[in-house]
Amino acid sequence: MKGVHIWVFYISFLVSFQLLIGQQKDETVSIEVSDSSSASEKTPLSLRFGVDLYRVILSQVSDDFNGIEIVSDLRLGENFFLALELGDTKTTKEVDQVNFTTSGNYYKLGFDYNMNENLKGMNNDIYIGLRFASSNHTQVLNSYTILDRSRFWPSSDLPVDIGYATGERSNLNAQWIEVVCGFKVQLLKNIYMGLSLRLNRLLKDKIPENFDNIYIPGFNKKTEENKFGAGFNYTLTYIIPFRSKKK
Amino acid sequence: MEKKFLSLISLMIFFSCERDDICIVSVTESPDLIILMLDQDNLNNRKTPAGFSIRALGTQNILPGNISDSLTLPLKIQKNYVQFEFILNLGLDNENIDTLQINYKRIDNFINVACGYRSNYILETSPVIILNPGDNWIKGFTILKDTISDERRAHLGILH
To answer: Which domain holds residue B88?
Structure first.
C-alpha cells in the first residue's frame, strides 16, 4: 500500500514538472504575442478553488483512508495569495505496537508568495508559503501489545483488543505551522494543477489520555522526539477572475 | 531562484523520510510479582523451605531466577490470575505440593509507539487461593505492597 502512495506521488510530481518545463520552452513565442497588448496591463484579482486529488484517489484505493481536502487561494496582489485549506480525514493505522483510528477535520490558513516571473500570457506559479493550521480530532485505540521481553507465558504477545486501554479519546486538538513550497500550472484557461510539499512544526497538541497523537489529521504522522511532520497535496483547481484593477 | 526552490524540495523530502521506531532495551517491561517466603512464627524472618521448587501451570517454561526465600514470578497478561505449584521436599517421600492461584487486576500504561504498553497490577484483597485445601504446608499470606508497578521491593509474603 505504501508503495502505491509513493508511486502516485512520483508520477504526479514528474508529470507536473514536465508541464512546467514544457511551458517555459514557449517563452519566446509568448513575448512576441504579448508585446502588442502591453498598454492594458492588469493584475486580475481571482479566487481559485479545488480539491486535493491525492486524497480523493487514496480514499478510493485504500480501505484504511477516507479523506478530502478542499483548497483555495485568493489573489491579493501581483504575487501574493491568501490561502485556505479545509480537510476531513478518517484513517486507521498500525504503527509498531499500536493499531488506532484517527478521525477529524482541520483548517490551514496562510499565504503563498509566487517567485516565478511570468511572461506575458502565462500564469504559472512557483511559490513558497506559510500556514497556521489547527485540527479537531478523535483517537480510537483499537489494539496494542504489552511490552514483555521474556514471554514466559504463552500468547503473551497477542494484542489487547478489548477493554483495558482500548477505546475512544475524543475532543482532541492540535495546532501547527507549515512551510509550503510548490507550483501551480495552468492547464486550460481556468483550470490549474498544483503540487505542494509541506514541512510541519507542531506548536501544541492535546494528548489523549494514556495514548498519544501518533497521527493528526492534516499534520500526518508525528514523530516522538521532535515535533515535525510532513505532507503534500496534488490539486486540481478552478479559477474565477472576479475583478481587475489597473496596475 | 530555481536552486533555492530545489534545495527546499530536497529538504522536505529528507524530512518526510520516516525513521524506524525501535523499543530500546533500557525501557523496563511489565514488572513481575516479587514474593518473600516468611517464617510463620516470625514475619520478619525470611525462610527458604526445604527441598523447595515451583512449577508454573500452563507452560513448560522453567521459572527464571533462583528458587529461594525470594521469588520473582511472571504474571499472565491474558488472565487476571496465575497458578503455581509450590513444592516442599521435592522428590522425597514427604513431598507436599500446594497449588496456589494468585489474583490481581491489570492496568496498562502507554510507554511509546515502539514499545507499546506496560502492565501494572494490583493484588486482589484476597490475593491467593489454595486450590488443594487439606494438608497444606503454606499457612498464610500477607500483602506487603498491593500495587505491582516495579520490582524494587516485595509485594507478597507467603508464610510457612
So the answer is: 23-159
Cross-strand bridge partners of residue A233: A196
Tell me which of B15, B17, B20, B111 to substitute to probe the interface with A (most A C-beta atoms closer than 10 Å).
Answer: B15
Per residue in A146-174, pLDDT (tens digit) is 998 888 888 888 999 998 999 999 999 99
Residues of chain A contacting B149 with CB distance shorter than 8 Å: none
B135 lies in some domain: yes
Rounded to two decimals, what is the model's pTM?
A: 0.80
The total of structural domains in chain B comes to 1
CA–CA min distance B143, chain A (Å) = 24
CB atoms within 10 A of CB A158: 12
Concatenated DSSP letters of A17-67:
HHHHHHHHHTHHHHHHHHGGGGGG-EEEEEEEEEEEHHHHHHHHH-SSEEE
Amino acid identity of residue B28, one-letter, is: T
Residues A167-221 have pLDDT tens digits of 999 999 999 999 999 999 999 989 999 999 999 999 999 999 999 999 999 999 9
Ordered domains of chain A (ranges, CATH): 2-23+44-137+168-241 (2.40.160.20)
